[in-house]
Design a protein that fits this description.
Layout: E1 6-12, E2 14-15, E3 27-28, H1 35-49, E4 58-65, H2 73-86, E5 89-99, H3 106-115, E6 119-125, H4 129-134, H5 141-153, E7 158-165, H6 172-184, E8 189-194, H7 202-205, H8 213-229, E9 233-234, E10 239-241, H9 248-254, E11 258-262, E12 267-272, E13 279-285, H10 289-292, E14 300-305, H11 311-319, E15 326-327, H12 328-335, H13 342-353, E16 357-359, E17 363-366, H14 368-372, H15 374-379
Parallel strand pairs: 1-4, 1-11, 2-3, 4-5, 5-6, 6-7, 7-8
Antiparallel strand pairs: 8-10, 9-10, 12-13, 13-14, 15-17, 16-17
This protein binds S-adenosylmethionine (SAM) and iron/sulfur cluster.
Length: 382
């Protein structure tokens, strides 16, 4: 077993207001943002977790939320300076910040860049005003355009636009128009998510009228065609990029890499190889901001070592999201399980026979059929 590449996830749990479809750990702001106090907690949290990774380098940082772009440039600068004082960042580390178009001005973009952010991910969702309204977004169609063009002109290494489809009352033409408008901004990366109705959201208790399955299918197939014709390669279920512009941070999750997770509710996965029995440690931080910032309790809410018999499912649940073939060697190195073991051989014999996976001497590759029935495919690994 070897330790895979290491990333750092930082969670900022506040938003201007909660969107009706969102089940992320985010809270509408009711008072002043306690940003400097929170940054101090994040850095303490990090100081504790780095003991788990010894002197391994961090290859990417993702500041997600919530709405991290609510933070001032000063707070973001303190956070990134504190991080680089504590961990060694690789020279070309990707440092992404999630931003909401309703919280951005040009000078903030420049300030974030100077603080060390080199990639921005903007939650555009749609460029159509009626759709933004039905999603309860705080920004309008003009702000969506402006934020995308700021990102393009800010001199960052890269930027991403988040779009959703399958929106209330959305036709195929509406969805394709959103994609075309996004493509005109030439984002190196596009995340194109189908709206899902999650439990514990306002949309769950009061469901909006969504497009029927036939329209959803047309949106999916025509949208993928448009993206492909425009030079965007699909590399993950919802991830599209120009060649070489995949999100390295997310790729690391899906390749079963390691990550430290700091901040409210953040998850971490850390391979510990120092002992004679290498194991994968999972960590979850206290979810609510009040509890997280309560000095009388630890930041970590739960931590456990993954049981060996759960590793194949955990590995493939991530790995099979990716379009690229999976090196068999990665499976052995990151899980410590022999690919020739009877369990793994048995599962692959079934998946190959059903046409869900193809294999060569060195790689496994999900087929189109396997991707369409990914959940059923993954059940075979349980
Ligand atoms: C944490 S949010 C991103 C940033 C920021 N908070 C914002 O919304 O602008 C990540 C992305 O997940 C997508 N998303 C959130 N909830 C979703 C849902 N229920 N179904 C599909 N996509 C969703 C949205 O595209 C969103 O931009
Ligand atoms: S702004 Fe983003 S994180 Fe916040 S509630 Fe809306 S979708 Fe969720």
């Amino acid at each position: 077993m070897i330790a895979p590449p290491l990333s750092l996830y930082i969670h900022i749990p506040w938003c201007v207001q909660k969107c009706p479809y969102c089940d992320f750990n985010s809270h509408g702001l009711k008072q002043d943002l306690p940003e400097l106090e929170y940054v101090a907690h994040l850095l303490d949290d990090l100081s504790q977790d780095i003991k788990l990774v010894e002197d391994r380098k961090v290859n990417s940082i993702f500041i997600g939320g919530g709405t991290p772009s609510l933070f001032s440039v000063e707070a973001m600068g303190k956070l990134l300076k504190g991080v680089s004082d504590r961990v060694e960042l690789s020279a070309d580390a990707e440092v992404t910040l999630e931003a909401n178009p309703g919280t951005l001005e040009t000078n903030k973009f420049l300030g974030f860049r100077q603080a060390g952010i080199n990639r921005i991910s903007i939650g555009v969702q749609s460029f159509q005003q009626d759709k933004l309204k039905s999603l309860g977004r705080i920004h309008d169609d003009k702000q969506a355009q402006v934020a995308a063009s700021y990102a393009r002109d800010a001199g960052l290494n890269s930027f991403n636009l988040d779009l959703m489809h399958g929106l209330p009352q959305q036709s195929m033409e509406d969805a394709l128009s959103d994609l075309s408008t996004a493509i005109q901004q030439k984002p190196p990366h596009l995340s194109w998510y189908q709206l899902t109705i999650e439990p514990n959201t306002q949309f769950h208790s009061k469901p909006p009228v969504l497009p029927d399955d036939e329209i959803l299918w047309d949106i999916q197939t025509q949208g993928q065609k448009l993206l492909k014709e425009s030079g965007y390669e699909q590399y993950e279920i919802s991830g599209y990029s120009l060649p070489g512009q995949q999100c390295r941070h997310n790729l690391n999750y899906w390749r079963f890499g390691d990550y430290i997770g700091i901040g409210c509710g953040a998850h971490g996965k850390i391979t510990q190889i120092g002992s004679d029995k290498p194991q994968i440690l999972r960590t979850v931080k206290v979810k609510h901001p009040k509890g997280y910032m309560d000095l009388s309790r630890p930041y970590t809410d739960q931590q456990w070592f993954v049981e060996k018999d759960e590793l194949p499912f955990e590995f493939f649940m991530n790995r099979l999201r990716l379009v690229e073939p999976c090196p068999k060697q990665d499976f052995e190195q990151y899980t410590g399980i022999d690919r020739e073991s009877a369990q793994i051989q048995g599962i692959f014999a079934t998946t190959i026979q059903k046409g869900l996976i193809q294999e060569s001497a060195t790689h496994w590759q999900v087929t189109d059929l396997g991707r369409r029935y990914l959940n059923s495919l993954l059940e075979l690994f349980v």
